[in-house]
UniProtKB/TrEMBL annotation, chains A, B:
Gene3D superfamilies in the cross-refs: 1.10.1660.10
Source organism phylogeny: Bacteria, Bacillati, Actinomycetota, Actinomycetes, Kitasatosporales
Annotated protein name in UniProt: MerR family transcriptional regulator
Annotated signal sequence range: none
Recorded superkingdom: Bacteria
Organism in which the protein naturally occurs: Streptomyces endophyticus
Ranges where the HTH merR-type domain occurs: 1-70
Keywords (A to Z) from UniProt: DNA-binding
SUPFAM superfamilies documented for this protein: Putative DNA-binding domain
Pfam family, one: MerR_1
CDD domains on file: HTH_MerR-like_sg5 (cd04780)
Coiled-coil regions listed: none
PROSITE patterns in UniProt: HTH_MERR_2
Length: 213, 213
DNA sequence: CGTGTTTGGATAGTGGCACTTTCCAAGAAG
DNA sequence: CTTCTTGGAAAGTGCCACTATCCAAACACG
């Protein structure tokens, strides 16, 4: 299929597709002649993922390029490809490491990981952007006066652990490594709003039950 | 306290605070003289919330103004203030309503809400931005070929229902209405990355357990 | 009292980013 | 042969969250 058809089937304007090609988000089509190129179903699929990342995930173009680079890096094993892709996803700005509150929260988080039995996560520790995000959000919550005890955090953590189990069960249903990594990325981008939408719907449901309209 | 001190204690540059004042995110300080104004602890706290919404939640300035407008609207009852504030939060762009897949997914979601026993949520239905977000993300997942059956969705929904219960239990610990609404907003902005960070940590933990490094 | 500094407010400018527009020459279509 | 389409390069656009520059009033100090 040519550019015009790729645009029509995906619903993405031609100019925008050219931009993605230029920026290296979408691989070049197969050259048919000096001024003509052919695109495959794989391009269509990849374009869908790019749009989802940018429009739903609000991920910057440069970051999308980086993430997709890891997705396509066949020199790595699945686990590393997956980890590299997810670690490249954007994280909120971090709290300064020399802040006393940050130090205190970091220690609390370490203790908490131990209590949860998440020993692998604890070892990876500060290397993981996810870990630092956790510290940062707790620091901010504390600053705003909305922090909760470790017990409340643990309750949330146990629930999210079950969510993670469901996620991994789904990953297991895919044979192909590239598909696994793509699902993991799509899951980070699209399951997040989905989970949060479910949470808010449940909040709406139960708050009307508790307090009425 | 004057502007300079507000800036120092909050860590937000003076120019930026002026910008927030101009944009109506932060209420004006009390005028001391023609060229001098005094700011309170309330300003400091509100400024923290604004920063969290913009920097961590990546919420547009115009939206922050709208959300805070609802938070401060004392003419509404708590439930409505809370709902209005949360409904003003940004949602991903929606899928076109006339699309056949969208229609199909909408029906499936309605059935699903019935199965969950979320009758209130079902009645509010299309009015709720959250509901439409749910439809949109499922449509996108389906387009990408990553959709799952209603059963899987229900498993996630049950877990998020428990999360929502924890959220509401926390809300109950606050007496003051304004604080309740502020917590709800902070919860939407900051608990979301926190929950997602917990989910990813759990994923990392269990994927290394399942597949090793 | 005078002089230099600080303050809040108005206005204009900046930089980043995700596109769009415009242009062009080579090919395809009729 | 003429007309249209195509892919590619380069410059332009619009939005947005700040940021820099001025200014005159007012405070601080000797």
């Amino acid at each position: 299929m040519r550019l015009a058809e790729l645009s029509e089937r995906s619903g993405v304007p031609v100019g925008t597709i050219k931009y993605y090609l230029r920026e290296g988000l979408l691989p070049q089509g197969e050259r048919i002649s000096a001024t003509q190129a052919a695109y495959s179903e794989a391009h269509l699929r990849r374009l869908g993922l790019i749009r989802a990342m940018i429009q739903i995930g609000r991920i910057p173009v440069a970051t999308v390029r980086e993430v997709l680079g890891h997705v396509d890096d066949e020199s790595l094993g699945t686990t590393f490809r997956l980890g590299a892709a997810l670690w490249a996803m954007p994280q909120p700005p971090e709290a300064p490491a020399d802040d006393p509150l940050t130090v205190q929260v970091t220690e609390a988080v370490d203790r908490f990981l131990g209590d949860m039995g998440w020993h692998n996560a604890r070892e990876i520790g500060a290397l993981s952007p996810t870990y630092r995000t956790l510290v940062t959000t707790i620091v901010t919550l504390t600053r705003l006066g909305f922090s909760r005890g470790a017990e409340t955090l643990a309750q949330y953590a146990h629930l999210m652990e079950e969510v993670a189990q469901l996620d991994l069960d789904q990953l297991d249903t895919y044979e192909d490594d590239s598909e696994k990594v793509e699902l993991a990325v799509a899951s980070a981008v699209l399951y997040e709003p989905l989970l949060l939408a479910l949470r808010r719907l449940a909040q709406e449901e139960h708050s009307t039950r508790r307090y009425g309209l």
